Amino acid sequence: MTVRSADSYVHGYSVREAQRLGDQAASVRELIHHDTVYPAGARVLEVGCGVGAQTETVAGRSPESHFISFDVVADSVRQAAARVHTKRLRNVQLLAADLLALPFRLATFEHVFVSYVLEHMTDPLRTLVAVKGALTPGGTITVVEGDHGSCYFSPRHPTAQRAWECLIQVQAALGGDSLVGRRLYPLLRAAGFEDVAVSPRMVYADASHPDRMDRFVAKTIVPMVEGVEARALSDGLMTRAEWDAGLAHLRSIATSQSGTFCYTFFKATGRNPRDAELCGLTRKEPV
C-alpha cells in the first residue's frame, strides 16, 4: 500500500490538477482550517502532502510548530517544496516516502495531519493504524475528507448528475472511496483512537458568492469531474453526447444567476491512547 500511488490517484498528476488543488485549498481554507492550530514546538507529521496545497495552510497557521510532510510521488514533493519556498515557510521539512516504510521511530510525533488521503486508499483502516504508530501516547490526529455523496446542485439535470456519479464510480473501480467522509468516526474508532469527534463543513455557493462559485465550483469541482472523462467513456458509463451535456450543465452552474451548489467536507479529530500497550508501542522496535 502506498499513499497516492500513480495508478490509484483518480485525478492524475497534471499541471491543471496541481492548480485545481491550490484553488480548492484556497476556496475552503477558513471553512476547514479556522480551528487547525498546533502549539509551539509541536512535531507534526503530514501524511500524503501532494503538491503542498494543505501544507501551506496548516504550517502557515502554526509557524512555531515543526512539520514533516511527505508523499510517495517525488514530483509532487518537489512541487510542494517550491510552494513552501515561495511562501517562506521555514517550519516544514519535505520528503518522498511510503506510508508503510517511514524513516521514523515509533511515537515520534505529537500530532498527525491527514487530508484527502483516505479516499484514495484501498484500505483506509490500515492507513490509520499505520499513522497511529507514528504518534506519541496521547498524541492527536486530524483527518479531513470530502464525501461525494453529499453533493447537490440546482438546476437539476440528469446528465450532470450522471457525470458526477461517474467520478464516484471511477474512483471506486480504482480501489478508492469518495464517500469515505461519512465513515471517519467508525474508522478512527476501529483504528484505536479515543475522543473521536467529527465536524461536517458544508460549502454552499450561489450568485451572491461569485468568488466561491469561481474557485470552488468552476475551478475545483468541474475539473475534478473532467479528469475522469476518458475512463468514464471507455468504461461505457456515459455516451459522448451525454457526457458533453452533463459537463456543459455543471459549468453553467458556476456562471448562472440562478445556480446553486452544495458539498460537505468532514473533519475528524482523535487522540492516541495514553497507555503504551493500547498505542501498540510495546512491540520491540528495530534500532
Helix content: 40-55%
Quote the CATH topology. Rossmann fold
Query: What is the CATH class designation?
Result: Alpha Beta
Shape: globular
Parts with pLDDT < 50 across at least 5 consecutive residues: 1-7, 282-287
The rounded distance between the terminal residues' Cα atoms is 24 Å
Main sheet: strands, sense, barrel: 8 strands, mixed
User: In sequence order, what are the helices and strands, one letter per element?
Assistant: HHEHEHEEHEEHHEHHHEH
The count of β-strands is 8
- The CATH superfamily appears as Vaccinia Virus protein VP39
What structural class do you assign from the helix and strand content? alpha/beta
Written overview of the protein:
The protein contains eleven helices and eight strands. By secondary structure, the protein is α/β, with parallel strands linked by helices. It has one domain: Vaccinia Virus protein VP39 (Rossmann fold, 3-Layer(aba) Sandwich). Strands 1, 2, 3, 4, 5, 6, 7 and 8 form an eight-stranded mixed sheet that branches. Helix 5 links the parallel strand 4 (109-115) and strand 5. The radius of gyration is 19 Å and the shape is globular.
